[in-house]
């Protein structure tokens, strides 16, 4: 196959895909504005990295608890309907959070309940939305559609925190939550305009179909290796993001604007990584993309933990975002492109469990470790653990037996 040096625009030939793409762009942007506002609000109330980690745990705990049944639900019930209901619930919860914040009626307990509820709606929305994305394109465009979905998420990571950095000082934290409500309103309008293709139900008992999805991943050495690798990076590598408010204020002394700029730098690198994945993921060997991405990510995050210069820290976060997205795009492409349409929701649910569902464990690790040893030492410890595990999994994945699984997937795409 000849090498292409521009992003694969094939999925955009589908009008429903284009409509869903722009609707979710709005939703992702609002969610990132709210994420920054939520983290800043918690840090202003408590002044503690421990509480940052604890609220990160509360917001992502539903993904850990419900990703697998949500994936099975996405295969059993209409995916578009699930996404509409989940986003409507998130709209109302974000609006309520803004009202309580504006009138100073928000306690830590109430905030925790609302954050958990938003996470619950997101845990059912995520597998249904990602599977719906792939339903709208032909099978040969699945890798490109996954890369463009990653581009959406990371484009919002670039713009959302930068917007929040100006919204918080000028309009207050409550405006971040109301902006998220508006973003969901636009997304819902787009969802109502699309008509996805007919969806076949698995025709099996709910828990039997759930078990089938888990066994599907576990049955292949290469698939299982990739799944474990994603989970490892989520727990010990990606959890550094929970501590960024502390780094912005306590280490780099840059305040809320500095936090927004650090997150935007991370998002800029992630956005560039998404474009790189959209350009090369169909043409470059997936094992090389995975190993190169994780190496860059770990080196950058480890250096960030040692940095005391704001420009240097922002640059390192950009490189970390680039490496992480390249790694995840290749790993998720390998998992999801091998799934049949009937299994797609369950595979996406398992992927969500591994990447975002395990994030509460990473948040708890960050909270407890930072309380004992401080935030910089916590990030370094996570990088070391992640690196050791990655080396072991890499050798296991790229052994002669496992490598055949990779190569079969690549040959199917050539």
TrEMBL record:
CDD domains documented for this protein: MFS_MefA_like
rRNA-binding in keyword set: no
Membrane topology: Multi-pass membrane protein
InterPro entries (alphabetical): MFS_trans_sf (IPR036259), TM_effector (IPR010290)
Subcellular location, record wording: Cell membrane
Keywords: Cell membrane, Membrane, Transmembrane, Transmembrane helix, Transport
GO cellular component, as recorded: plasma membrane
Gene3D superfamilies in the cross-refs: MFS general substrate transporter like domains
Name of this protein: Multidrug-efflux transporter
Record organism: Methylacidimicrobium cyclopophantes
Lineage, broadest ranks: Bacteria, Pseudomonadati, Verrucomicrobiota, Methylacidimicrobium
């Amino acid at each position: 196959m000849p090498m292409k040096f521009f992003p694969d625009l094939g999925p955009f030939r589908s009008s429903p895909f284009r409509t869903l793409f722009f609707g979710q762009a709005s939703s992702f942007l609002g969610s990132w504005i709210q994420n920054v506002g939520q983290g800043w609000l918690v840090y202003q109330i408590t002044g503690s990295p421990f509480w940052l980690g604890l609220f990160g745990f509360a917001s992502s705990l539903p993904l850990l608890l419900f990703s697998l049944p949500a994936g099975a639900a996405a295969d059993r019930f209409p995916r578009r309907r699930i996404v509409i209901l989940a986003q409507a619930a998130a709209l109302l919860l974000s609006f309520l959070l803004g009202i309580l914040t504006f009138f100073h009626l928000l306690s830590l307990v109430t905030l925790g309940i609302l954050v958990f509820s938003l996470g619950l709606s997101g845990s059912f929305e995520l597998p249904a939305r990602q599977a719906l994305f792939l339903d709208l394109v032909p099978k040969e465009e699945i890798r490109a559609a996954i890369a463009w979905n990653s581009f959406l998420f990371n484009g919002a990571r670039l713009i959302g925190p930068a917007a929040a950095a100006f919204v918080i000082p000028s309009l207050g934290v409550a405006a971040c939550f109301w902006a998220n409500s508006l973003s969901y309103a636009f997304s819902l309008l787009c969802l109502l305009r699309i008509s996805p293709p007919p969806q076949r139900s698995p025709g099996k008992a709910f828990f039997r179909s759930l078990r089938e999805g888990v066994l599907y991943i576990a049955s292949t050495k290469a698939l299982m290796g990739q799944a474990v690798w994603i989970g490892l990076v989520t727990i010990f590598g990606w959890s550094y993001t929970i501590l960024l408010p502390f780094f912005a204020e306590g280490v780099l002394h840059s305040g809320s604007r500095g936090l927004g700029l650090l997150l935007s730098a991370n998002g800029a690198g992630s956005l560039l990584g998404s474009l790189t994945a959209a350009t090369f993921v169909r043409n470059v060997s997936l094992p090389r993309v995975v190993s190169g991405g994780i190496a860059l990510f770990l080196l950058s995050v480890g250096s960030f933990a040692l940095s005391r210069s704001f420009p240097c820290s922002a640059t390192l976060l950009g490189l970390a975002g680039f490496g992480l997205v390249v790694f995840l795009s290749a790993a998720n492409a390998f998992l999801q492109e091998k799934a049949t349409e009937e299994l797609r929701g369950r595979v996406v649910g398992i992927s969500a469990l591994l990447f975002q569902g395990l994030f509460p464990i990473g948040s708890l690790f960050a909270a407890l470790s930072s309380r004992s040893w401080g935030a910089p030492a916590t990030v370094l410890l996570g990088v070391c653990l992640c690196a050791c595990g990655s080396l072991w999994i890499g050798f296991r994945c790229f052994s002669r037996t496992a490598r055949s699984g990779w190569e079969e997937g690549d040959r199917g795409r050539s």
